[in-house]
Amino acid sequence: AARETMSAMLAAGKTSADEFQTDCIREAMERLCKILGTDFAPFLPALMPGILEGLRLDHVLKQVSEEELDADANNTTENDDDMVLPTEDGLVRVNTGKMTEMLSVVQLLNVFIREVGANFYDYARPVGEALARILGCADSLLTVASQVRDAIYPCWADLVL
Q1: What pTM did the predictor assign?
Q2: If DSSP codes are grouped into helix, strand and coil, which group holds residue 154?
Q3: Quick one: 114 exposed, middle or buried, by C-beta within 10 A (0-12, 13-18, 19+)?
Q4: 149 vs 58: CA distance, rounded Å
């Protein structure tokens, strides 16, 4: 039954799932992983590419210039999830929707690491590298993404244990 459930969730995720459906699928995956524990490992190859893609900070934060902001002000396709914050290094556009999604991905990843245990070993390096890229980004960007950073620390700790 677990295989069929995961197949259905993965298929739904590949279609144009809305935010609510995506959140429900993510929560169901967390519950399924907690139930199956180490037996969840066979599902990781299908899940990890999307998880790693969800850890890309460049989808969440982007340094912008005043000129880009002026051009965007004239563009009617402005994203409601975007906000612009000043930093020591200039202006940073934050996609708050993507940041919330990244926080959910980190939470899901932490469940995978804890529950799958030693069977997560094959993914330790790529996950560690993805987390290190976030933690190693410019101080001004990391300050803006402090929620993401704070969510990563427990995940990082579980990864190295």
Answers
A1: 0.80
A2: helix
A3: middle
A4: 14
